[in-house]
Fold:
Amino acid sequence: MDRVIVVGGGLAGLAAAVALAPRGFRVTVLESRPRLGGRAGSFTDPATGQLVDACQHVSMGCCTNFAHFCRTVGVEKFLAPQPRLTFVTPDRRRSVFKADPWPAPFHLGRALLGAHYLTPVEKLRVAWGLAALLRESPDADPPLREWLTRHGQTDRTIERFWGVVLVSALNETVDRVGLRYARKVFRDGFVRHRDGFTVHVPAVPLGRFYGAELRGWLDRHGVEVVENVGVRRLTAGISGVELRDGTTRAADWYILAAPFDRVPDLLPPDLAVDPFFAGAKELTPSPITSVHLWYDRLPLDLPHAVLVDCLGQWAFSRGEVAPGEFYLQVVVSAARPLKGLGRDEIQRRVVEELARVFPSAARAKLLRAKVVTEHTATFSAVPGVDRWRPAQATPVHNLALAGDWTDTGWPATMEGAVRSGYLAAEAVLVRAGRPGRLLQPDLGG
Ligand SMILES: Cc1cc2nc3c(=O)[nH]c(=O)nc-3n(C[C@H](O)[C@H](O)[C@H](O)COP(=O)(O)OP(=O)(O)OC[C@H]3O[C@@H](n4cnc5c(N)ncnc54)[C@H](O)[C@@H]3O)c2cc1C
Structure:
């Protein structure tokens, strides 16, 4: 039986392992942390012992490979589809965004018309801009902001419509992203299929989500998971992996599923400078800040809210998580402007904002808080970013790459990570002489 070493137990590495294990490969996953799930993970709150997500993660209906992975390992039951989203502005007005029973792309027409934070003329501008965006070639990737301005968008429509959707979806500001992934978000999420836009929220912390069921599946399929074991480097000629403790391990196939900023150090020096792999050094990171708040009563009368014209973009309420403690998380994507503010100031601004926007938050007493910033949350989807994203099948026969940053056609998401893992597994299958299709079709595809 062929042996495979997967370096990195994030979603990309796990997806590769889950794809190969039932196909006659003996898989070992080497993970440097004491847990699986990578960036989609939880920490244990020292104050209470509660499992808290480093940052709330959500998926969407269009994320077909992520859904397939969840079904395969038996954690789909933890995903709660949210057919209604509530958009809230600082004046406390709300609009509900939900689909009508009409075929795509008309299913969301009435929801757009009902958006209280856009004037009728702005809605026309947005509709015009959307139609033009969808007519663009899938490969066109000019700077988005200039393109939007050329297509009738104003600062207000950019702030209140395009920015609201894209900053969360791409973890980058409209000023910095390219058109390609903006188009993908609107096409796959809102236009192509009526279920594409449905947000799926894990009903349990991510530490639980990627927990017992996943481990049980890996166990049953003979996948060896070794945590707390950092790989120092792949050895010359990709003949093995050297661990940080000085020992080595060898296999027939290697899948490097580490984040882009770790990859150059993990490759043998000759490969790190090879043009195929060198793109990893050109990718730039974009941070996400999450503000965790525990109140003495329910601060938000909704499970989640999209915040328009606010510092935070999404608020997620988990209700009472311990006797007398109600947990709320606010996510600030593309959090570069927060740099240098300090945790106390970020917390103060977010708590003040919540009190302004939600009467229930104004009445609730804050018990404690935690601000977490992930500085390398995702790569930045700047114009032309794909030229730096390598394919999963590398020029080295027994080495494949996986990771949300590799060439998946998707932005950095759980879907992108799972796709990369499946594609890396496909590359191994081809080279092992047993080609197979693992990538799942798009919704309605
Ligand atoms: C704050 C935040 C919020 C996000 N929100 C969302 C969201 O709502 N929806 C969504 O779809 N996506 C979201 N994402 C993106 C999503 O988390 C990532 O795209 C996805 O988890 C990446 O998976 P990956 O396996 O490619 O990388 P990672 O999760 O980074 O996994 C790589 C793994 O490799 C391990 N590793 C690194 N070096 C070594 C080494 N030397 N030896 C052994 N192991 C090593 C790491 O410990 C890690 O476990 C968010 C990300 C962040 C940070």
Remarks:
- DSSP finds 15 helices and 20 strands in the chain.
- The first strand starts at residue 2 and ends at 7.
- The mean pLDDT is 96.
- The chain has three domains: 2-38+210-283+390-431, 42-60+79-96+198-204+285-379, 100-191.
